[in-house]
Amino acid sequence: VNISPFLDFLYDSPTPFHAVENLENQLKNGGFISLNENESWSLEVGKSYVVNRNQTALIAFHVPKNLKAINLIGAHTDSPTLKIRHVSEKIDENVRLHPIEVYGGVLLHTWLDRDLCLAGEVTVNNGDKIEKKLINFKEPFFKIPSLAIHLDRGVNDNGLKLNKHNHFNAISSLVDTEKIDKELLFSKIAEKLSVKNEDILGFNLSFYDHQKPQTIGLNSEFVSSPRLDNLAMAKVATDSILKGNFSDEILPLVAFFDHEEVGSTSYAGAAGSFLEDVLERIREATKITVDDFYKIKANSVFVSADMAHAIHPNFREKHDGAEFPVMDKGPVIKYNTSERYATDAFTESVIIKLCKENNIPYQRYTHREDLACGSTIGPSTAARIGIKTVDIGNPMLSMHSIREMCSVKDLEYLTKLFDKFFVEYFSQV
Ligand code: ZN
Fold it and tell me: Which residue of 188, 370, 385, 426 is most buried, as measured by CB atoms within 10 A?
């Protein structure tokens, strides 16, 4: 497998804005036609389309001849990260510090002592228009230093205790206390965007690790990278729909949402209206009656794809003793009877049948009963659009760390599964 486009995508997508831009460009280069939410849509049979919302959520689909079902794959574009606060700097003695906001369930200690870059969206006053501009400083401007062991002697035995407010100011420069150059960072931003400082109206900027993603291991069998959760799933699904192996009866669709790491309730999140709005516009543009569209939805399946916890060999006690996935042994079907995952007997059967028929290994995951279970976009999307849903994902280690890991071969298994999923009809009888 050619892993380098995958690694490049992860590196060039430090924020949801960049991920959506890169995926959308890839789809457009592959013949998908761009739609805008603020224009009328006319769709043609046999053509493929892509639309984004807020530049952080993305939906792409293909219009079949005789629509009987929609097979959807969903993932999220956001990852836990540190964002720069609106009070964007403070001067302490002779160093410039940038207070941060913690976005999502960050594994905080992994962000210490890393060389950090900054990327995101900046909005600029352009006369009568507010213009959105993406920015990505690939230079390592920042660092959040850890406390030396001599000043915290018990740290290795007692555990590292971090206060998000006090201990997470990023250092960016030394300042001359005689004449402080205020807002140096914003001067750099303005310069990079070729605008004036005072024209910057708003921003949404995240830090990210300067180190590039790469394969590691004695046989290069692992990917070591930030944001595998969940850009790995979005990338595999996009590559799959781009192959263009479609059936005449199924509308294949990929949907990638923002804000999963903070609960999905937003304009561009899975609990928002984006997918529902797009489905309704597809119905209108293809002149399908409301009644027929209910029938189509009843025959449709949504695959919520999000990375899964492989068993950690150094912490086996944190996993269920009997049902645990390992890396390199195929996609994981996730179960939770409290509906933290949306899988049920019918939808798990969809995945198992596809795996069995196509020689794809698969595994199962249930969280320990005595630990609080995470969740995905699965349950909220299922509730919102009224389509049966299954939660799956590839096994990984170090989830929500600044540097995560998964296996290369699992990406191939998932690709094979997605390729087959888009063309199979799963009517429930
Ligand atoms: Zn995730």
Answer: 385
